Amino acid sequence: MQAPDPGFVESPANAHARSPHQVRTWYAPVAQIYARVRPAHPQELIEWAIAQTHLSNTSRLLEIGCGPGNATLAFAPFGMSMTCLEPNPHFYHLAQHRCAAFDNVTFHNSFFEAWPAPPGSFQAVLAANAFHWLPPEIRCVKSAELLQEDGFLILLWNLMPEPSLEVYEAIESLYQAYAPSLARYEGAIVQAEILQGFGQAVLDSGHFKTVVTEQMTCQVTYGVEEFLQLLSTLRRLEPGTQSILFEKLRETLQPFGETVSLSFLSAVQIAQKL
Questions:
Q1: Residue 60 placed within a domain
Q2: Domain boundaries, position 142
Q3: What distance in Å separates the CA atoms of residue 45 and residue 218, rounded to the nearest whole number?
Q4: Terminal Cα-to-Cα distance of the chain (whole angstroms)
């Protein structure tokens, strides 16, 4: 099963089909906003992943597509040596700045597909909302190749934060008119099915053992302007279209108050190398 497009988890069919230039520049206009408004992965899931994979300050961890360093900042305090790859130069420089206090973290402005490393170099490979950006014929094969014997693949996911159904129904017509790709409502059951599909794809690759998943429902509350900033990180719109959509969303959301409450499924999936 593929995740819907667009959103925090973009459809693999669309994500890995992007040209190298598109991947390098896709989030460039909203890099700072992305770092600020995207919800963090719960600390409980980070600690669970560390425990399950036996990572310590002597371990070596490779992070694929680290973005602005949101997940990097969650793992870095545990002291393991982290090598982080990010093809987008805006994210790359931002992640370097945000993680400057951690001597155990290094960054490379590189695509995972093209990055050279000796086989068996890492105890774990981490991807936070990034694994689906990789070509399916490469992501599991190369991840397994770079892992040491019995190493672990760690996939962190935050699915689409959604307002209550009442709020969504009030704004759906605006999405349909100005940003049709945003016009969908998943809910917890569908998001759980999406996660199951991601895990099954890893198993189907034939390079990893049984996938273990830990997940939880999360709630976040944004001011209306923060909510609009969050939307700006989901799909790039033409400036004129975005301006009109956001103005109409402000008007439509006004009766619901000054904040927007969102819920989403957050998860970590761990698979051990065969």
A1: yes
A2: 12-161+186-220+263-272
A3: 12
A4: 23
Strand segments, DSSP code E, in 2-135 are 60-64, 81-85, 105-108, 122-128
Q: What is the pLDDT averaged over residues 130-135?
A: 92
List, for residues 135-167, the tens digit of each pLDDT value. 999 999 999 999 999 999 999 999 999 999 999
The answer to whether residue 54 sits within a structural domain is yes
Query: Rounded to an integer, what distance in angstroms lies between the CA atom of residue 154 and that of residue 144?
Result: 12
Does residue 232 sit within a domain? no
CA distances from 121 to 33, 118, 149, 180 (A): 34, 6, 10, 44
HSE-CB for 113 with a 13 A CA cutoff? 15
Residue 169, CA atoms < 13 Å, CB-side half-sphere: 3
215: Cβ contacts below 8 Å, ≥ 6 apart: 45, 192, 195, 265, 266, 267, 268
**What's the CATH code of the domain at 77?**
3.40.50.150
Domain count, the chain: 1
Quote the strand ranges of the chain, DSSP E: 60-64, 81-85, 105-108, 122-128, 147-158, 212-223, 259-272
